[in-house]
Amino acid sequence: MNLLATTVADSLRTFEQCLSERGPVRRVGDLESYWAGLASLKNQAPGLIVIDISLCGRQIKDLVLKTKQQLPGARILVVAPSVPAADELVLLRAGVVGCCERSLPPESVARIVAMVEDGGVWISHGVLPLVLKQLQIRTVANEQHHIAPHKPIADIRNYDSLTPRERQIAELVGSGVSNKLIARELNITDRTVKAHLSAIFQKLGMQDRLRLALYIKDREYKKSEPNLTFS
After folding, report:
1. Of 25-29, 129-133, 139-143, 209-213, which one has max mean pLDDT?
2. Is the CATH number 1.10.10.10 carried by domain 128-224?
3. Taking the model in full, what pTM does it have?
4. Is 98 exposed, middle or buried (0-12, 13-18, 19+ CB in 10 A)?
5. Residues 6+ apart with CB under 8 A from 231
6. Whole-angstrom distance, CA of residue 39 vs CA of residue 26
7. pLDDT tens sequence across 141-166
8. CB 34 within 8 A of CB 5
9. Do domains 2-117 and 128-224 have the same CATH topology?
10. Cα 178 off chain centre by
């Protein structure tokens, strides 16, 4: 069951169409109905929870945190007229799987919904450098406190060790494509996709899909903006 919480007609139409293609949708338009809808998800496998900021305004972070407390496995996607990078970063820390703008075309919304429902995290291009920097800072802090850190973002030379098929799959992951869609596009099985991903993670020194997507997006940034530097 997917939960769609919004008071905006455009969001309702766009997201309801995308969500309904992936399962039943419960629509709510106020906070009281939202909490009732959330309670109903506790007795079934929760799908995606889409919250338009119109539902609670600046209290969106509190709403996300309370939602995660009541339903720890909730996958929350926040929708707003615009999403400043600083606000997106705050909400990602709070536990959302992505933030997107209402003005996105239906095909983009469908792609984001497919990605996050398949276990991915949607991060905008504007926030990517901030996330990368925080990952690097966290790794350094863990090393200083003798905590086993996540492996750092892979070096560019490691990417050259990937086979052509592995590079193809890595780039599709970086584009937000789910395992099922990768398998369909490349005419291979889901199991084969997972096997390739395991090999990619090992070669690049990564532990999860999120880091791979971040790495691929970072490579794209460096190609399109050769003068970009990270402090």
Report:
1. 25-29
2. yes
3. 0.61
4. buried
5. 133
6. 12
7. 444 444 344 444 445 557 888 999 99
8. yes
9. no
10. 11
